[in-house]
C-alpha cells in the first residue's frame, strides 16, 4: 500500500525544489490527490505539467499499486496569483 510520503518523495525526486502536498482521497492507499508547485512548470501547458508528475509514478500506475492520482499543478507565479488559501 502506498502512502502520501512515498508519493511525495517520488515526485520530489523528479521535480527537486517543488512544493508537494499529497492527500489520500479514499483512505484505501491507491487513490490520491496532489498539489504540486514547481518552477519546472513555468511556460508549460497543463498537460505537459501533468506528464512531468505522472512520469515519476508511472511504474506504480502500470502495476495498479497507484490507481488514481488527481493533480493540481502550478508554477510558482501561477500559485502566487491565486493568493492566500
From TrEMBL:
Pfam family for this entry, one: BolA
InterPro entries (UniProt xref): BolA (IPR002634), BolA-like_sf (IPR036065), BolA/IbaG_stress_morph_reg (IPR050961)
Record SUPFAM superfamilies: BolA-like
PANTHER family noted in UniProt: BOLA TRANSCRIPTION REGULATOR, BOLA-LIKE PROTEIN 1
Family recorded in the similarity comment: Belongs to the BolA/IbaG family.
Protein's name in the database: BolA/IbaG family iron-sulfur metabolism protein
